[in-house]
Amino acid sequence: MKVFLATLLFLINIIGNVFAEDSCRDFYDFSWSVNSSKTKATFEVKSTSPKPIYITQILIQTKSGGVMKKITRNSKYGTRANFVMYISAYGKSDYTTSVSSLNPDLIGGGKSEATLYCSFIKPKPREVQNLNIKKEKSWFKWQYIFLIPLAFVFFGWVIEQFEGSKTNKKSKRLRPKQYSDYTTNTENFIEDVWEGRKPLGECFWLYFILANFIISFGSAFLLEYFDSKFFLIPLIASNVWVGVGTWNSSDNYQKEKIKQKQGYGWAYTAKVFIVLNFLALAGNVIDIFNT
Question: In whole angstroms, what is the distance from residue 149 CA to residue 14 CA?
Answer without folding.
Answer: 61
